[in-house]
Every structure is written in C-alpha cells, then in structure tokens.
Design a protein that fits this description.
This protein is α+β, with helices and mostly antiparallel strands. The protein is 33% helix and 14% strand.
C-alpha cells in the first residue's frame, strides 16, 4: 500500500520540531544559523546535505494585516520520480511503500538527480572528499519496522499526518470542504508531476509560500528518458567535432613545420 505524509501548513506553528527529529533520526550535523535571515526568522535559510526537512517562514501580508504562513520543504517522493528515471546507475529507487531511497554504493556522483528534480530536493555533499547525494527518505527504515516517520511522530499540533496516500487525499478534501475559508481549494501534490506521496494544504496560494507553480500533471520520467537517451549521441557528436578540429589544427601545424624546414634547407 502506497504511504504518504499530509502536511497541513495551516496547523503549523513553526516550532521546527520536525527538523530536529529528522536530524536526530538520521544523525545529521547541526548547522550554524543566523539570528535573522532576510525578512524573517527562517533558519537555516535553505535545505542542505545536513538539513533534509526545512520549515519555511513566509511573509503573507494581506488586506487583513500581517501574518506568517509556514511552509515545509523536503523530498516530495513522486509517484513517478524524475530522479529515478534520470539516474544512469539505479542509485535511486522508488519503493512500493512510497519512499524514494538512495543507494550510496551505486552512486557515481553525476548529480543528474539534482538537475531533473522539479522540487530541487537532492543535495550534494560539496565539502566531502567522497560526496553523496542526501535527501529525505521518508524514514524508510522506520516504515520497514512498522513505525511512522520521525517528523510525523514529533509534530505537536498534528500538522503532519502519516498514512495511506488514498486515505490522506480523502482526509485533505474533507478538511477543505468542511472549512473552505481556511484552505485554498487545492491539494499540492495530488496531481503535480503525476502526483507525490507528500501532500500539502495551505490557506494561501502555494506559489506565495515558495512552492513551484505551473508544474504539469504529466509525470516527468518520459521526458527525462528522452533527454537522457540523447546524451550519448550528443557526446559522440561533440567528440567527432573536437576530433575534427584537432585533426585540422595538427595538419596546419605539420604544414607550417614543413614549410619552415624547407625554408631552412634553402
């Protein structure tokens, strides 16, 4: 059964308990943060190889006054992941239960997954001699033991709910219909790029709190595979071009050397 997480951002109070739980669960290093970042209190400013789950602070000024709207950034665990389709060595895999997991032993560091991800989820360890790709794995190890992801367990306000994806969608639509003034009439992740296992509710349009807007409902993999299949031909073509240029340059140099030798002999 495909599992998922429903993030109801209207219930989030910005405590960052989910961030701390994620770091504890995966033994991620703490990061030096700033007292202020930009116009608000968001810390750290971006997701990194050591911060897989980030609560975002968004200024949502409106005619009703000033207020914070919280968002949440992590891997969305797409139903048909672009990163899995792009990886040439199958280092990334979509499991039947929902998580997109990463196999360190297979990775060659090409970072195609970073390029194709519509949510900019994978992070690269730039400061390591043997770097890896790092991202949320929805606590796949905990799920295998019948436990819930650490972030959902620690959430004090019920903003994060773990369960079967179909049941989460039903719950999300029930909340929207029951309280239409509280939510925008959209579940982010229900259809974006073919659907995701991490779903979101919000009280303002999602683009106002930094979520990628205008994504197609069509899954990315077919487009990715077409592009990836073109790479070997492009590389072959580039090799042929550079090989031809090298041949021309070498021929000219040989001709010049020959002319110079003939002048010296005469």
């Amino acid at each position: 059964m495909m599992k998922g997480i429903l993030a109801d951002t209207t219930r989030c109070i910005g405590c960052r308990g989910c961030q701390v739980a994620c770091k504890q669960q995966h033994d991620l290093d703490a990061q030096k943060t700033l007292f202020f970042w930009g116009d608000g209190y968001q810390n750290p400013p971006h997701r990194t190889a050591e911060t897989w789950n980030l609560v975002t602070f968004n200024d949502a000024r409106s005619e009703n006054g000033y207020e914070w709207v919280f968002g949440r950034r992590q891997c969305f665990h797409c139903m048909e992941p672009a990163c899995v389709a792009a990886c040439p060595v199958e280092a990334l895999k979509k499991t039947p239960e929902g998580p997109v997991v990463y196999d360190t032993s297979r990775c060659i560091g090409c970072r195609y997954c970073q390029i194709v991800c519509p949510f900019n989820a994978p992070r690269f360890e730039w400061n390591k001699r043997v770097p890896e790709i790092r991202k949320c794995n929805m606590c796949a190890d905990r799920m295998a033991r019948g436990e819930h992801p650490a972030c959902t367990v620690t959430c004090a306000t019920g903003a994060l709910l773990f369960g079967d994806r179909k049941a989460l969608l039903a719950e999300a639509w029930t909340r929207i219909k029951k309280d239409p003034d509280r939510y925008v009439n959209h579940i982010y992740g229900e259809n974006e790029v073919g659907g995701t296992c991490v779903l979101h509710l919000a009280k303002v349009p999602f683009e106002r709190i930094g979520y990628p807007a205008g994504l197609s409902d069509a899954p990315f993999p077919n487009q990715i595979k077409t592009a990836m299949h073109a790479i070997p031909y492009a590389m072959t073509g580039m090799a042929a071009v550079f090989g031809g240029l090298a041949w021309i340059i070498n021929r000219r140099m040989s001709a010049e050397e020959k002319d110079g030798q003939e002048e010296n002999d005469s």
